Amino acid sequence: MSLEGKTSQTAVVCHGGVDLRTETREIPQPKDGEVQIQVAVTGLCGSDLHYYLHGANGIFKIREPLVLGHEAGGIISAVGPNVNADLGLKVGDKVAMEVGVSCKSCKNCRKGRYNLCKNMRFASSAKTFPHLDGTLREVMTWPAELVYKIPEGLDLALAALAEPLSVVLHAWRRANLQPGARVLIIGTGAVGLLACALARASGSTTVVAVDIEQGKLDFAQEQQWATGTFCLPKGPRVSGLEALEAAEKSWAALKASDAVQSVLGLEDGFDAVFECTGVESCMQMAPMAAAIGTKVLYVGMGTKVLSLPCGPSLLSEVDLIGVFRYANTYPDALALLASGKLGNVQAMASHYYTLENAEQAFNDLRRGKDDNGKTVIKPMVGNLALVGK
Ligand SMILES: [Zn+2]
Ligand SMILES: [Zn+2]
């Protein structure tokens, strides 16, 4: 599967809302400190889907054609000049790529909190201009220090999960929980599901998952990642005080459910709530579901302005903690994926597509189901021969 003689490659390029094109691009050669990688798979996530559907992710609108994708694994096909030998990277290595390129010199970078770097350029995001192309292509070059060899025995397709798992690991570190913690996970997309898996692996005795899709909750229970689940009724998207009312109703229903009632002491709330949807009423429900003196981790993005009841935070000292991407997580995320401690994470990679079929992958992700009605957890798109699919 060498690149010998190959001069051009296929890339999946977003030109605007529902305008995805498969284009032919030149194969990039690695510059100083870079490696060239044959991309094997890219896991699609919610932000990719927003760009596909609207040509924008929240306030970040694409201003030039952009290659999507940022959860990826591949195989090194060339090593550029002056790559630090300590990294031990060589042609043929299976790797995962961390796609945020920070400046390394600002205050936050120097503190090691490079996820907060104001100069961060993140592949497949339109936040900065010119944009930085993502991983939905056959070949890319990338700074070697952001490329991690995957542990022996780890399925290359699962290397892509190191990205969403990094988000979860970062949130988990910020939560600073003890074994035995009772946690609530709101939203069971890929991040929420991995949060359930990590909570169980870290000794949480109670992991309650909520979502509006029963199929995803069933998946969480089948994998034994959730100890209890609750399917919230689907309501219209509301905002402000209307959303707050919906949040109060949701918490009342969840509190009265078997998932909560069957666990002694849980009526007072959870030791930590991981909000993984970014939906207004869910963000409002999160502090209501947190016990006195505990915390809420805001992992999902999507609501800019929020009416929050101050009671839980002020009078009950519930800490509201923001979580933005991740820093210093990749080696640990890969080790966790390889360890088997998370259970059957292979099941997360529910569907595989070629680059040419990327649009189908986006549509299946949008519907949450494939043509046969099977629940789509994480669509993987790429060079399927490289991952044996
Ligand atoms: Zn993502
Ligand atoms: Zn910086």
UniProtKB/TrEMBL annotation:
<dbReference type="InterPro" id="IPR045306">
    <property type="entry name" value="SDH-like"/>
</dbReference>
<protein>
    <submittedName>
        <fullName>Xylitol dehydrogenase</fullName>
    </submittedName>
</protein>
<dbReference type="InterPro" id="IPR020843">
    <property type="entry name" value="ER"/>
</dbReference>
<keyword id="KW-0479">Metal-binding</keyword>
<dbReference type="Pfam" id="PF00107">
    <property type="entry name" value="ADH_zinc_N"/>
</dbReference>
<dbReference type="InterPro" id="IPR013149">
    <property type="entry name" value="ADH-like_C"/>
</dbReference>
<dbReference type="InterPro" id="IPR013154">
    <property type="entry name" value="ADH-like_N"/>
</dbReference>
<keyword id="KW-0862">Zinc</keyword>
<dbReference type="InterPro" id="IPR036291">
    <property type="entry name" value="NAD(P)-bd_dom_sf"/>
</dbReference>
<comment type="similarity">
    <text>Belongs to the zinc-containing alcohol dehydrogenase family.</text>
</comment>
<dbReference type="InterPro" id="IPR011032">
    <property type="entry name" value="GroES-like_sf"/>
</dbReference>
<dbReference type="GO" id="GO:0006062">
    <property type="term" value="P:sorbitol catabolic process"/>
</dbReference>
<dbReference type="InterPro" id="IPR002328">
    <property type="entry name" value="ADH_Zn_CS"/>
</dbReference>
<dbReference type="GO" id="GO:0003939">
    <property type="term" value="F:L-iditol 2-dehydrogenase (NAD+) activity"/>
</dbReference>
<feature type="domain" description="Enoyl reductase (ER)">
    <location>
        <begin position="17"/>
        <end position="377"/>
    </location>
</feature>
<keyword id="KW-0560">Oxidoreductase</keyword>
<dbReference type="Pfam" id="PF08240">
    <property type="entry name" value="ADH_N"/>
</dbReference>
<dbReference type="GO" id="GO:0008270">
    <property type="term" value="F:zinc ion binding"/>
</dbReference>
